[in-house]
Design goal:
Elements lengths: L7 E4 L1 H7 L16 E4 L18 E6 L8 E6 L2 E8 L2 E6 L13 E3 L2 E3 L6 E3 L17 E2 L1 E4 L2 E5 L11
Antiparallel strand pairs: 1-2, 3-12, 4-5, 5-6, 6-10, 7-8, 8-9, 11-12
């Protein structure tokens, strides 16, 4: 039996503000001016809505061919080290620091779409950052969008971490 729930189109509030003249610190805009996200009526809570920001910033980290197939390299982006992996001709980017003890995941062994931390063999999926030793856990590594423009590999610039107790 196929369940076909009605979907509702939700406009992105940041896109509306930018369209109305708000400041735009965007270096590269590759998508249309209006973004929509399909949300089922059951998913109307604010925290469950996945909004797509049409003004994601990207930075070139390397050229195609700089990362060998099945390996990773670490690159600094906006104060965060990001590990970029090449697997099956596709690039993936996750936070380079293992959440367990801070080892560089870029130097870990790539097994399928999972990277093993070189210090204690914790395994993380390079597609979504899930801790594969316990995927139901809340432990995960942050992931970033990757695109190839010409021969340049570009990664979404991570947002700086906000202090826990602002002054």
């Amino acid at each position: 039996m196929i369940n076909r729930r009605k979907q509702t189109i939700v406009e992105h509030p940041i896109a509306d503000a930018r369209r109305n003249g708000a400041a735009q610190p965007v270096r590269d805009r590759s998508s249309s001016a209006r973004m929509h996200v399909a949300v089922s009526p059951a998913d109307t809570r604010q925290e469950s809505m996945k909004m797509v920001d049409e003004a994601i910033e990207f930075q070139t980290v390397c050229k195609q061919g700089d990362i060998p197939e099945g390996e990773g390299r670490a690159f600094p982006l906006n104060g965060t080290l990001v590990a970029v992996f090449l697997r099956d001709g596709n690039y993936f980017a996750i936070n380079d620091s293992c959440p367990h003890m801070g080892a560089s995941l870029a130097s870990g062994y790539l097994e399928g779409h999972d990277v093993l931390c070189p210090w204690h063999a914790w395994k993380f999926c390079i597609k979504d950052g899930l801790w594969m030793d316990n995927p139901r856990s809340k432990i995960k590594s942050e992931t970033y969008a990757v695109r190839v423009v010409g021969d340049e590999v570009q990664v979404q610039i991570p947002q700086p971490k906000q202090p826990a107790n602002p002054p």
